[in-house]
Amino acid sequence: MDDLQKELDMDNRDPNDLNKHVQTAFEDVIGEPDGSHSPDCVWRISAMCFKGGKACCYTILTGLCGIFIGLYWGCEFACISFEQIWCTTPMLRVFGVYLGCLQKFFGTCVSCCLAPICETCGLLFSNISVKKC
């Protein structure tokens, strides 16, 4: 557990800006334009209620659900990694081997059968010339 704590940045918990779109600060959600100002005490108390309510609700939700959701996503990505490493990548390699053989087979057929025909047609049509009258 000590290595995990050294690895985690406890201050910047979104270093890759994965959730930059979830701006939930009071100023990012509620704004009063000029000409539509509530009394200063209402504005201050609203901001305090917003921040306190958000912090309390988020703490309760993450406390109740965060560990289980973290466990779920860890298992989900473990299954995806397993499937990619042990199933998909080897199957793609198998397809590559079989398709490489098919590519050689069809390439040989085209070289033997179609190439002489195309070369002959090219020689026939290369002697055609068009003159304007």
Automatic annotation (TrEMBL):
It comes from the Eukaryota. GO terms for molecular function: molecular adaptor activity. Keywords: Cell membrane, Golgi apparatus, Membrane, Transmembrane, Transmembrane helix. Its main location: membrane. GO terms for cellular component: caveola; Golgi membrane. Pfam families: Caveolin. The chain crosses the membrane at residues 55-74. It is found in: Cell membrane; Golgi apparatus membrane; Membrane, Caveola. The keyword Membrane applies. The keyword Cell membrane applies. One of its GO terms (biological process) is caveola assembly. It is a peripheral membrane protein. Belongs to the caveolin family. May act as a scaffolding protein within caveolar membranes. Interacts directly with G-protein alpha subunits and can functionally regulate their activity. This is Caveolin.
